[in-house]
Amino acid sequence: MAEDSPGFVVDLGKPASPAAAGSEKADDCPECVIDLSKLKNRGSAEPPAWGVLILVGRGTYGHWDDAYSATQVANALVASEAGATFLLYGDGVFLVAKEQDPAALGYINNLHTLRDFLDLGGKILVEEQSLAQRGLGTDDLHPGVEIIDRTRLVREIGRHQVALTF
Amino acid sequence: MATLTILLNRGPLISEYAELALKLAGRAADKGHRVNLYCYIDGVWAPHVKADKGYENEGRLLREALAKGVQVKICARCAEARDVTAEDTVPGIPQVGLFDFITWLKESDKVLTFTG
Asked: Tens digit of pLDDT for each residue in A140-159?
């Protein structure tokens, strides 16, 4: 994504991609303009009234496409100015492992997408028992994620209007 | 009348998820509900089953669901990754971006995910 542009243009009927940025003038399609600066400033403002909880319980890379596909839904949500929260549990906690580098496997690094997600006001919650069971702690995770207990997990499920499971 | 959106993440035959999702979509439509079905990840393979078979199959269920007014869309990126073209799938199902799915989510009273 363009870092400093006030807005970029995405054809809402097609997959968003960096190649689409700037390919259409805002005058031609005002509703297609996404105001990135507004989205990035949203983190300190009131959370959106409508939000989606995205639960990920599977690990990254390998043969499961679920975690990567979850990140695509998450970024489409925040780009639509909806609330979106990742809730990572089980092997899903590996999605935010610090300094992960799947280059040797030939996969796209999920952290690129997750950095955009956090920049655009998204939240990432990690279930603490799942981390402990895998010998992981705060220092092993990408900055900006929050570790929560199971009481908070239940509260988050109730706080969101929609839950999607990957 | 309520609006139900189904996210189908699994393909046909390998598990029951696609079959269950399509049967549920059809039954909800029978009851007069508005039903949306978004084929995501390996769910894009469900519309790939086009020809008649001598046994229960997701292609037939999908055609029935469409005839009942169920709105079905395919994730264009997922289809492209698997080389699933519009010609490969049951007619009348557009390949679209994720923003169509997000719009459906916002319009829905209930959302169900079939991931497995």
From this structure: 999 999 999 999 999 999 99
The answer to whether the CB atoms of A15 and B76 lie below 8 A apart is: yes
Question: DSSP letter at A86?
Answer: E
Q: CA–CA separation, B37 vs B66, rounded Å?
A: 10
User: What is the interface pTM, i.e. ipTM, of the complex?
Assistant: 0.90
pLDDT greater than 80 at residue A14 = no
Are A50 and A82 spatial neighbours (Cβ–Cβ below 8 Å)? Answer: yes
Distance, CA of A166 to chain centre: 13
Q: Which residue has the tokens 């393909």?
A: B11
Task: Output the pTM of the full model.
Answer: 0.83
Give the mean model confidence (pLDDT) for residues B45-74.
Answer: 96
Query: In whole angstroms, what separates CA A94 from the centre of its chain?
Result: 14
Output helix, strand, coil percentages for chain A, rounded to the nearest 5.
Answer: 45, 20, 40
Instruction: Tell me the torsion sign for CA atoms B103, A18, B75, A106.
Output: negative
Cα separation of the two ends of chain A? 25
Chain A residue with CA closest to B7: the answer is A164
The amino acid at B34: R
CA-based nearest residue in chain A for residue B40: A69
Helix (H, G, I), strand (E, B) or coil at B53: coil
The answer to whether B73 faces chain A, any CB pair under 8 Å, is: no
Give B100's contacts in chain A (Cβ within 8 Å). Answer: 12-13
Residues B47, B74 contacting (CB under 8 angstroms): yes
Q: How far is CA A91 from CA A15, A64, A121, A166, in A?
A: 28, 12, 24, 11
**Could you tell me if B115 lies within 8 Å of chain A, comparing CB atoms?**
yes
